[in-house]
Specification:
Layout lengths: L2 E10 L8 E6 L4 E6 L7 E13 L5 E6 L16 E3 L2 E3 L6 E2 L9 E2 L7 E7 L6 E5 L14 E4 L15
Antiparallel strand pairs: 1-4, 1-10, 2-3, 2-5, 6-7, 8-9, 11-12
Length: 168
């Protein structure tokens, strides 16, 4: 889906100390955004919001990374062996976990489809909500009073901020 990357996050384990920097890259290695993590906790997910969100084009490959200056980064070997989907974003199966030893450059190496537990904060572009189905059908006649009207929308509807009226 199209949308915006508004932040970068990584999972921090014990010993993963120092100043961490996150980057979002084009698939060819152009850095599109960079952020320094501040106010980190000792372990767990760390999140840094970008000062300016970066647009994501549907169907385009991007790379996200973070620099762990003292190592001890989290890994799960073979994680991307069968691909992965989370919400509107997906990673195809294969050598998609990338890494680079050194001072925070574009990650080009891969080993055993490993997940290095770095991710983006993503907000998909809002889509126009349409009626996918309804019962009774629009313009139906002869509908008995005991029929409960039903409507299905093309996208999820937020729990607040909407109102709907059923007219006879």
């Amino acid at each position: 889906k199209a949308g915006q990357v508004t932040g970068i996050r990584f999972f921090k384990g014990a010993g993963n100390t120092g100043v961490h920097k996150g980057s979002r890259w084009s698939s060819s290695g152009t850095r599109l955004a960079e952020v320094t993590f501040v106010g980190e906790t000792a372990t767990g997910w760390q999140t840094a919001m970008l000062s300016t969100p970066v647009t994501v084009t549907a169907g385009t490959t991007y790379v996200v990374s973070y620099f762990a200056p003292n190592g001890h980064y989290a890994t799960t070997s073979s994680f991307f062996g069968s691909g992965f989907t989370s919400g509107d974003l997906s990673v195809p199966a294969g050598a998609n976990g990338k890494y680079l030893y050194g001072n925070g450059g574009f990650p080009t190496f891969s080993w055993n489809s490993t997940n290095y537990w770095v991710d983006v904060v993503f907000e998909k572009d809002p889509s126009a909500v349409t009626v996918a189905s309804q019962a009774p059908a629009a313009g139906a006649t002869g509908v008995t009073a005991d029929v409960a009207p039903r409507i299905t929308f093309s996208d999820a509807i937020a729990a607040t901020g909407w109102s709907m009226t059923v007219r006879q």
